[in-house]
């Protein structure tokens, strides 16, 4: 099973889209094993976006992600990373297909509603930044045999 981190960004929370976004992710068959509403600190944002430090857009990333609460989610399931990224849509909402989260609700690249881990290494690092092991739950879902062969 693969895990990935998803953040419903401040614009998604402020626009009242968190429930819609979470619902779309759940309907893929992926399982929520951790979820919380949180305010990201400057320190956590700096660590999360560390790879972009020194780039012209870095301060804007940190400023935005700390501007309002986010919903942090850990999803688990087969191909969790690629499935999540497909349902998210392209980083730039203008390039996102209809039916994706960004394609249906986004209009600006800087306000693109959702973050999802890019690959397995990023997912492992990001999940550990936002969740302690005690905040992640393993459980059997009655519908699982209808989702995964």
TrEMBL record:
Its cofactor is Mg(2+). Gene3D superfamilies: Nucleoside diphosphate kinase-like domain. The active site is at 115 (pros-phosphohistidine intermediate). It catalyses: a ribonucleoside 5'-diphosphate + ATP = a ribonucleoside 5'-triphosphate + ADP; a 2'-deoxyribonucleoside 5'-diphosphate + ATP = a 2'-deoxyribonucleoside 5'-triphosphate + ADP. Belongs to the NDK family. Major role in the synthesis of nucleoside triphosphates other than ATP. The ATP gamma phosphate is transferred to the NDP beta phosphate via a ping-pong mechanism, using a phosphorylated active-site intermediate. HAMAP family: NDP_kinase. This is Nucleoside diphosphate kinase. It comes from Candidatus Lucifugimonas marina. The lineage of its organism: Bacteria, Bacillati, Chloroflexota, Dehalococcoidia, SAR202 cluster.
